Fold these 3 entries.
Entry 1:
Amino acid sequence: MVEFSRRSVALSASALMALCACGEGEQTPGEVAEEGVESVTFHRDLRPVLEARCNGCHDGSGITPDALDFRDPVQVQALAPVITAAVVGRTMPPWQASGGCNEYKDDLSLSASEIATFVDWEAEGLKLGDPADFVMPDLRPSELGAERLPSEPTLTIRSASPYTPDKSRPDDFRCFAVDPGFEADRFLQGFEVEVDNVSVLHHIVVFAVPGDEETGQLLAELEAEDETPGYSCFGDSRTNVETLAAVWAPGGEKTAFPPGTGLRISKGARFVMQMHYNLSQGGDGQDNSGIKLWFAPEDSPPAREAEMVFIGNLPFEIPSGVNGGTSQSCEGVYALLDDTSMPLTEGINEENLEDPSEIGSGGCVQQDFLYTLTGAEPVEAHAVFPHMHLKGTHIRAEFVPLEIDGEHSRPAPGAEVCLLDTDRWDFDWQRFYWFQQPVKAPVRGSVRLTCRYDTRGASEAVSLGEGSGDEMCLVLLFLTGTR
Ligand code: HEC
């Protein structure tokens, strides 16, 4: 905020100068000299920010529509109001985590002074300045550890045949099942997306699904629903899921899981690639994008087995016409964390359970998942993946240690450890947030989720479900032991 006011002083000073037609270098009476503050120019001030923070995607290489190539100053001038609105509203760069909650690898968000540069450039008349003033900034290398992965993946998965997204709708969600043919359990250690048709592909979520006969049967039925490859799916895979394996959105980097860890993909498991095709940007043609996957060698499993634990999705019902914005208080419900895959189980305090169907009337739902760690070693979280659908606006995930209150254990007020907080949920930009430092789970604790929704555009009540008109309140945590 400081930057905004400093600039507006400078601006009013120059406006005054113009009015009084004072000579260059002369001080306007009553104004404190703003030494060294010159108006913002494209080449000296804005272009370095664009290069460092935007042009990884907006460089004309196809990740963004051609009309959004920011290397051309005239184009940037023409788009200035849209660009400023996007950075001030923080819809761009695409990064939903709010500051002050936790710190993440490859944080895309802009600092206040970077945002001020956009605002001031526009306010001061979109001056281009001298191209010789441009200094290329140091580009930050990805912090996701991709250099630890060999250049060649263990395997690449993709749909057996290309798919042409359905142009009759703005968004087409399509799932493709792929059998990697694993004859033993394998440990996934990283992934990278191989984009085929960037003009239509917006997003990929990859699930590993069980290799049992029942799931095989279901996948065959889904595949047979229509003539074209794959099957229609929104938000999930429409099957049981063993684990989430990978997530990608435009600009997404090659990702290595934390050193020495791996995610078990069991023998016989299949992958389901959920592709989100966005047709509203004028994209066209077929797509056959693939995902490169890196696994630990069969004979040397990783030291620490990671688990992707799904937490959330207790039933709730939100009436239509409500906005759960920040001021609404949340209706809470307790449940036991029912996940047998991690030592995060052993239930306590079943008497705290309320009827979940009665929560959500204010457009806000708070769910506390109580657990006691039963394993010998402490557990830590390395990443969080939040998930809601189209009416979600805010989601917050916290670890809260439990305190004993009479006969009950309850989340201790004021002891929350924030994992993720967003006040601008965007279904189109779902991703993992990898912590700079892993976060230890309290031994007796709660995973608390707070989800807010805006149902003012809905014609009927919105409840938990898989459809695009339904909602979810869910996070996945990438957990390991600490040794
Ligand atoms: C991780 C990739 C990525 C980065 C980094 C990024 N953008 Fe974008 N941006 C996109 C994509 C992709 C679109 C196309 C629309 C969509 O897919 O949502 C887009 C769309 C836009 C739009 C069009 C309208 C809108 O608001 O969606 C503007 C303006 C924009 N970006 C500005 C910026 C600016 C300014 C920066 C840097 C400060 C930036 N973007 C950084 C990927 C990125």
Entry 2:
Amino acid sequence: MSMMMKVLKIILIIILLFSMKDVLINGQGKDNSFSKPSRIGVFWHSFFSRVLMGPFYQSYFNQLPLKGNEKVLDFGCGWGAEARILAKKLCKGGRLACLDISPQWIAETKEVLKKYNNVDYYVGDIVVLNIPESSFDAVCIHIVLHDIDVNLRPDIVKAIARIIKPGGHLYIREPLMAERQISASSIESLMNKAGLLERSVKFKRSFWYGEIVEMVFEKKGE
Ligand SMILES: C[S@@+](CC[C@H](N)C(=O)[O-])C[C@H]1O[C@@H](n2cnc3c(N)ncnc32)[C@H](O)[C@@H]1O
């Protein structure tokens, strides 16, 4: 095949992937949600996050101020992309807990993390799961909140705040989507109502997600 044909093929694949961007990012499951992914959805998101999005995850999670001995919850762990980085970071006696509403994603994350023995798993709704109060030093919410119905968010955020130790932190990164009612001020308001105080906010741009926000919150001390 001539060089010209090869280049043309690559360009066509890029155009195809780009035209599918919204479908691929916004969900593949029967109900168009991330929680019930199709098999192609599982395959695509694993490939997407590990290969195409590797630097997007690495750069964010590697700069989190974790010493390695903390207890951290990855809320909405999905296909385990950030969990792999976190499990490695928590190698100095720390523990990672991966929580997802979807049994399929938890199964995928377990497969991805099978070589780590510092990981626990929770499947289901954090509002009803009986996780002990003040049991985590930090919680990460990565590209999850915008996927949750706006009416469910207050109870979910309160349940998350409940399990963070006083003085502990919540790290959140979300795409800003007016149509999903997710903005930096709506996140701040939800967190404040749950007793979490904003410590930092950064606005960035991502090729896949457009405008994103990275925020850090701290749970009020006793
Ligand atoms: C867009 S994915 C992000 C996955 C992962 N955090 C990442 O950045 O690669 C959103 C994830 O949140 C999960 N999710 C949605 N609603 C949830 C809820 N109420 N509780 C826990 N997980 C939830 C979905 O099942 C899905 O795995």
Entry 3:
Amino acid sequence: MTATPLHALTSRRSMKFLRAPAPKQEELDQILQAAMSAPDHGRLRPWRFVLIRGEAIARLADIALDAVKRSGDPRMTPEKEKSVRQWMSEVPLFIGLAHQIHHDNPKVPEQEQLLATGASVMNILNATHMLGYGAFWSTGMGTYLEEVQEALGLDSLEYRFLGFLAIGTPACAVPQVERPDYREFVTEWTGA
Ligand SMILES: Cc1cc2nc3c(=O)[nH]c(=O)nc-3n(C[C@H](O)[C@H](O)[C@H](O)COP(=O)(O)O)c2cc1C
């Protein structure tokens, strides 16, 4: 739990190594409901989430890692495969992240739709953190391979797959992280 709402935002950091317990069902309901409050031009609700837990995680590991190996990715050495499988076996919940593409929408360009989905994922990350859990967004595990997204029931003509959120209890104390000074990223335009 975090002290103030603003502290909740600034103290969030990604935690890759996660264990059980995952958020309880009522907490997961709150986390996913938070995603529905993302800004969304045209009320397209382009975000889609696929829950993967229990035995389905080992099945996902098989499908994703086989697909990555078949794709010929040289980074998928036997050692890497072993470590990814080990990591996945300890994470109690994955959420597959997908974006429903509204092709040729006359009012809302695709980049705006994608931003709405990104904002919904950010709400999930923040809500997860506010409830005292850890999360990590990964675009490994064959995210960009069509067969992986199709295996999750997401037709690649209709959906763009955006990766997985690993969610659970941090395996170690959450270290503080130094964030950049916002002034490096902000200018003021005075109209002159
Ligand atoms: C769309 C997206 C995909 C990412 N994919 C990966 C990934 O595959 N592997 C990885 O190590 N980090 C990945 N990251 C970065 C981590 O999720 C995390 O943001 C990063 O480690 C910084 O931690 P922080 O969120 O505490 O600043 C990704 C981030 C985003 C936004």
